[in-house]
């Protein structure tokens, strides 16, 4: 199977978790504290993956300067885009309570939430494609980490979408579409950067890592702390440890 096809398929595998999480959030009455705990776990998983996998790979491939510039650049780009979308009604897109606005309350918020959810998922998917550039084999740790973190992201968001009065068609259209775009983003991550220098690939990996970390702090951790409070840190550490162990076992 061509490597570029593998990139798309692995991106789809990781993205499929978004649909699974959305289905749980929309159809299963999950308690607020459980959703918050799952978000804390997912946050820990992603923090571990970006520190143990992405930043290490970026530094090994390009050194300190491209890694640092990419990391800060990714965070800055995400923050700017997120600030814009927040002012269009997408501020609470990952929240599971009643923070998300209904369309009649904030016109255009449905589109902003959809675009915001897409913004959150693209960096993670590109990473999968980039991982295939190193020896032609995907980083299973990255795929598993992204899969595990995608479930709480869409679970929490879909719960909030339902409470805001959004239809099942909207909810599954958003998350199903993002799952497909995740596949395309992973494919792009491989095909576009296949012939680029190690420094460019390193900087791009670091950009994705910076965007993911900024996304965690802006959208996932507030939901994680909302209901778990003093247990949020412990659960986040558990998620970090699980991903850390996967990294070492995968190595």
Class per helix and strand makeup = mainly alpha
Mean of pLDDT: 85
User: Between the first and last Cα atoms, what is the distance in angstroms?
Assistant: 24 Å
Give, in order, the helices and strands. HHHHHHHH
Helical proportion, percent range: over 70%
* Count of DSSP H/I helices: 8
Q: Which shape, going by the Cα principal axes?
A: globular
- Oligomeric state of the chains in view: single chain
Beta strand count? 0
* Beta fraction: under 5%
Low-confidence blocks of residues: none
Compute the gyration radius: what is it?
17 Å
Biggest sheet descriptor: none
Descriptive notes:
The chain has helices at residues 3-27, 32-62, 64-90, 109-131, 140-163, 168-191, 198-228, 232-250. It is built from eight helices and no strands. It is globular. By secondary structure, the protein is mostly helical. The chain is 81% helix and 0% strand. The mean pLDDT is 85.
Concise overview:
With 251 residues, the chain is mostly helical.
Task: Spell out the key features of this protein.
single chain, 251 residues, mainly alpha, globular
Draw up the topology in text:
Blueprint: H1 3-27, H2 32-62, H3 64-90, H4 109-131, H5 140-163, H6 168-191, H7 198-228, H8 232-250
Helix pairs in contact: 1-4, 1-5, 1-6, 2-3, 2-5, 2-7, 2-8, 3-4, 3-7, 4-5, 4-6, 4-7, 5-8
């Amino acid at each position: 199977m061509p490597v570029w096809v593998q990139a798309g398929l692995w991106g789809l595998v990781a993205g499929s978790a978004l649909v699974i999480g959305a289905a749980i959030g929309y159809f299963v009455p999950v308690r607020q504290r459980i959703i918050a705990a799952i978000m804390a776990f997912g946050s820990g998983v992603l923090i571990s993956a970006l520190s143990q996998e992405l930043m290490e790979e970026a530094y090994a491939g390009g050194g300190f300067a491209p890694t640092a510039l990419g990391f800060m650049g990714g965070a800055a780009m995400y923050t700017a885009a997120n600030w814009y979308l927040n002012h269009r009604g997408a501020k609470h897109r990952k929240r599971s309570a009643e923070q998300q606005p209904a369309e009649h309350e904030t016109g255009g918020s449905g589109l902003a939430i959809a675009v915001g959810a897409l913004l959150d998922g693209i960096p993670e998917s590109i990473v999968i494609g980039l991982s295939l550039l190193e020896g032609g084999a995907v980083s299973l740790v990255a795929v598993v980490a992204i899969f595990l973190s995608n479930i709480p992201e869409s679970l929490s968001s879909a719960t909030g979408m339902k409470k805001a009065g959004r239809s099942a068609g909207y909810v599954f259209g958003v998350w199903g579409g993002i799952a497909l775009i995740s596949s395309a983003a992973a494919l792009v991550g491989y095909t576009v950067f296949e012939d680029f220098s190690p420094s460019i690939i390193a900087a791009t990996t670091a950009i994705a890592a910076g965007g993911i970390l900024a996304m965690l702090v802006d959208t996932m951790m507030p939901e994680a702390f909302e209901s778990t409070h003093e247990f949020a840190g412990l659960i986040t550490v558990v998620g970090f440890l699980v991903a850390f162990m996967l990294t070492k076992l995968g190595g």
